[in-house]
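quick q for whoever's on today - can somebody do inverse folding on this one?? i tried earlier but teh output was garbage lol. C-alpha coordinates:
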Protein backbone atom coordinates (compact mmCIF):
# COMPACT_ATOMS: atom_id res chain seq x y z
CA UNK A 1 0.00 0.00 0.00
CA UNK A 2 1.34 3.43 -0.88
CA UNK A 3 1.09 6.04 1.82
CA UNK A 4 1.03 9.72 0.94
CA UNK A 5 4.15 11.77 1.49
CA UNK A 6 3.64 13.66 4.70
CA UNK A 7 4.96 17.17 4.44
CA UNK A 8 6.12 19.23 7.38
CA UNK A 9 3.74 22.14 8.00
CA UNK A 10 6.01 25.06 8.81
CA UNK A 11 3.32 27.22 10.37
CA UNK A 12 2.86 24.85 13.32
CA UNK A 13 5.42 25.52 16.05
CA UNK A 14 4.34 22.94 18.65
CA UNK A 15 5.81 19.47 18.08
CA UNK A 16 2.72 17.83 19.59
CA UNK A 17 0.43 19.68 17.16
CA UNK A 18 2.73 18.63 14.37
CA UNK A 19 2.61 14.98 15.47
CA UNK A 20 -1.20 15.08 15.67
CA UNK A 21 -1.45 16.56 12.18
CA UNK A 22 1.06 14.03 10.86
CA UNK A 23 -0.90 11.17 12.42
CA UNK A 24 -4.28 12.35 11.11
CA UNK A 25 -2.88 12.99 7.64
CA UNK A 26 -1.26 9.56 7.50
CA UNK A 27 -4.49 7.89 8.58
CA UNK A 28 -6.32 9.47 5.67
CA UNK A 29 -8.16 12.24 7.48
CA UNK A 30 -8.18 15.66 5.92
CA UNK A 31 -6.14 18.19 7.82
CA UNK A 32 -5.05 21.68 6.89
CA UNK A 33 -1.44 21.42 5.76
CA UNK A 34 0.05 24.84 5.03
CA UNK A 35 3.09 25.57 2.86
CA UNK A 36 5.21 22.39 2.72
CA UNK A 37 8.91 22.94 3.32
CA UNK A 38 10.31 19.42 3.66
CA UNK A 39 9.53 15.81 4.40
CA UNK A 40 8.92 14.13 7.71
CA UNK A 41 10.20 10.61 8.38
CA UNK A 42 9.70 8.37 11.38
CA UNK A 43 12.66 6.10 12.13
CA UNK A 44 12.63 3.30 14.64
CA UNK A 45 16.04 2.28 16.00
CA UNK A 46 15.53 -1.43 15.36
CA UNK A 47 13.18 -3.44 13.16
CA UNK A 48 11.58 -5.07 16.21
CA UNK A 49 8.06 -3.91 15.57
CA UNK A 50 4.97 -5.29 13.94
CA UNK A 51 2.83 -3.15 11.71
CA UNK A 52 -0.71 -3.67 12.99
CA UNK A 53 -2.96 -1.63 10.74
CA UNK A 54 -2.84 -1.31 6.95
CA UNK A 55 -4.82 1.95 7.20
CA UNK A 56 -2.45 3.81 9.47
CA UNK A 57 1.33 3.61 9.12
CA UNK A 58 1.96 4.87 12.66
CA UNK A 59 0.22 2.16 14.68
CA UNK A 60 2.95 -0.16 15.88
CA UNK A 61 3.30 -2.89 18.44
CA UNK A 62 6.81 -2.30 19.74
CA UNK A 63 7.91 -5.52 21.38
CA UNK A 64 11.32 -4.59 22.76
CA UNK A 65 11.19 -1.32 24.63
CA UNK A 66 12.36 -0.46 28.09
CA UNK A 67 9.61 -0.86 30.66
CA UNK A 68 8.32 2.18 32.45
CA UNK A 69 9.50 2.47 35.99
CA UNK A 70 7.12 3.00 38.86
CA UNK A 71 6.84 6.69 39.55
CA UNK A 72 5.15 6.54 42.93
CA UNK A 73 8.30 7.73 44.70
CA UNK A 74 9.31 10.28 42.05
CA UNK A 75 6.06 12.20 41.66
CA UNK A 76 6.45 15.84 42.63
CA UNK A 77 4.12 17.43 45.19
CA UNK A 78 1.64 19.71 43.42
CA UNK A 79 3.03 22.94 44.92
CA UNK A 80 6.56 22.02 43.77
CA UNK A 81 5.20 21.08 40.34
CA UNK A 82 3.55 24.48 39.96
CA UNK A 83 6.77 26.23 40.96
CA UNK A 84 8.77 24.15 38.46
CA UNK A 85 6.37 24.95 35.62
CA UNK A 86 6.39 28.67 36.48
CA UNK A 87 10.18 28.72 36.51
CA UNK A 88 10.94 26.48 33.49
CA UNK A 89 7.82 26.66 31.32
CA UNK A 90 7.44 22.88 30.99
CA UNK A 91 6.80 19.76 33.05
CA UNK A 92 9.69 18.01 34.81
CA UNK A 93 11.56 15.51 32.59
CA UNK A 94 9.78 16.86 29.49
CA UNK A 95 11.98 18.60 26.91
CA UNK A 96 11.71 22.35 26.57
CA UNK A 97 10.70 24.01 23.31
CA UNK A 98 14.29 25.14 22.73
CA UNK A 99 15.60 21.63 23.35
CA UNK A 100 13.10 20.20 20.84
CA UNK A 101 14.10 22.82 18.27
CA UNK A 102 17.78 21.94 18.69
CA UNK A 103 17.61 18.15 19.08
CA UNK A 104 14.27 17.22 17.53
CA UNK A 105 11.56 15.07 19.06
CA UNK A 106 12.25 11.40 19.77
CA UNK A 107 8.91 9.68 19.24
CA UNK A 108 9.39 6.61 21.45
CA UNK A 109 10.94 8.66 24.26
CA UNK A 110 8.09 11.18 24.04
CA UNK A 111 5.51 8.40 24.28
CA UNK A 112 7.34 7.03 27.33
CA UNK A 113 7.40 10.48 28.96
CA UNK A 114 3.74 11.14 28.17
CA UNK A 115 2.79 7.77 29.67
CA UNK A 116 4.76 8.68 32.78
CA UNK A 117 2.92 12.02 32.98
CA UNK A 118 -0.44 10.23 32.70
CA UNK A 119 0.60 8.00 35.59
CA UNK A 120 1.59 11.08 37.62
CA UNK A 121 -1.77 12.70 36.84
CA UNK A 122 -3.52 9.54 38.03
CA UNK A 123 -1.58 9.68 41.31
CA UNK A 124 -2.48 13.35 41.75
CA UNK A 125 -6.16 12.56 41.10
CA UNK A 126 -6.13 9.76 43.66
CA UNK A 127 -4.48 12.09 46.17
CA UNK A 128 -7.11 14.77 45.51
CA UNK A 129 -9.90 12.23 45.91
CA UNK A 130 -8.57 11.17 49.32
CA UNK A 131 -8.40 14.80 50.42
CA UNK A 132 -11.96 15.43 49.21
CA UNK A 133 -13.23 12.37 51.09
CA UNK A 134 -11.48 13.53 54.29
CA UNK A 135 -13.03 16.99 53.93
CA UNK A 136 -16.48 15.45 53.37
CA UNK A 137 -16.07 13.36 56.52
CA UNK A 138 -15.13 16.49 58.49
CA UNK A 139 -18.15 18.37 57.13
CA UNK A 140 -20.50 15.48 57.93
CA UNK A 141 -19.16 15.28 61.52
CA UNK A 142 -19.94 18.95 62.13
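ok took a stab at it. sequence:
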Amino acid sequence: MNYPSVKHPSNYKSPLVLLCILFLYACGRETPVPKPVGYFRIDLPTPKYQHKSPDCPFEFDISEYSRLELIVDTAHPLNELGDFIDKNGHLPKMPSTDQIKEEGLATCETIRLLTEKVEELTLYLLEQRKEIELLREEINKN
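fwiw The mean pLDDT is 67. also The helical segments are 15-26, 78-88, 97-103, 107-141. so keep that in mind when u check it
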